[in-house]
Design goal:
By secondary structure, the protein is mainly α. It has one domain. Helices cover 68% and strands 3% of the residues. A hairpin with a 4-residue loop joins β1 and β2. α2 runs antiparallel to α4, α3 runs antiparallel to α4 and α4 packs antiparallel against α5.
Length: 202
């Protein structure tokens, strides 16, 4: 359940307005190199955690402890998948911001003489600001989540050598889930932005 998948939220811009991008098909395989930075780095770090956890489970003797760690491991696998989904959405937000081109909008706003045109341009600038804030928060939250995942691997190593902390390990995973669910809701809110009408060039 780690890293709840962000809903189809990405806001893209046409030459004069903002349009909503619906979620596309889930990718068949995780490929961080299809993403730009910092999203590629987040996914790569999650995959490193995944490999480390699998190695720990492989080195754990058969028995109830290994079974418990394997159960948590399936959630780690799902976490990596969902991290990739979040990162893809973040990458799309970067594309939306490039298309919006806030500097160009500001220049047009400064030149515009018509109050209606200025108001619409300002609406687009406000949308760009909200998208930027959501994008930056998504980046920050993913960075914190992957850092937390690294800490969980350390806890898993203690469990593997005999520490009775598997419950705490599972709880740590659940904490990350809740944090990312809150992030998902924040990005869902961006999906409610109404698209301003297209404006003529000024």
């Amino acid at each position: 359940m780690i890293w709840a998948i962000l809903a189809a939220i990405v806001v893209a811009a046409s030459a004069g307005g903002v349009a909503l991008i619906k979620r596309g098909p889930r990718p068949a395989a995780i490929d961080p190199f299809t993403l730009g930075e910092p999203w590629r780095r987040h996914v790569a770090q999650a995959q490193t955690v995944q490999r480390g956890y699998r190695e720990l489970v492989a080195g754990t003797p058969d028995g109830p402890l290994r079974a418990r760690m394997q159960t948590i491991g399936r959630e780690v696998d799902r976490a990596v998948d969902e991290c990739y989904e979040v990162a893809r959405r973040g990458f799309q937000l970067d594309g939306a911001l490039r298309q919006l081109d806030a500097p160009s909008l500001r220049a047009r706003h400064e030149r515009a003489a018509d109050d209606g045109v200025r108001a619409s341009l300002q609406s687009q600038l406000d949308s760009a600001s909200r998208i930027r804030a959501t994008r930056d928060d998504t980046d920050r939250q993913l960075r914190l989540a992957t850092t937390k995942m690294g800490e969980l691997i350390s806890e898993a190593a203690e469990v593997q050598v005999g520490s009775d902390a598997s419950v705490e390990l599972g709880t740590g995973v659940d904490d990350v889930v809740r944090q990312l669910q809150a992030l998902r809701q924040a990005v869902d809110d961006v999906n409610q932005i109404a698209a301003p009408r297209q404006l003529p060039s000024t």
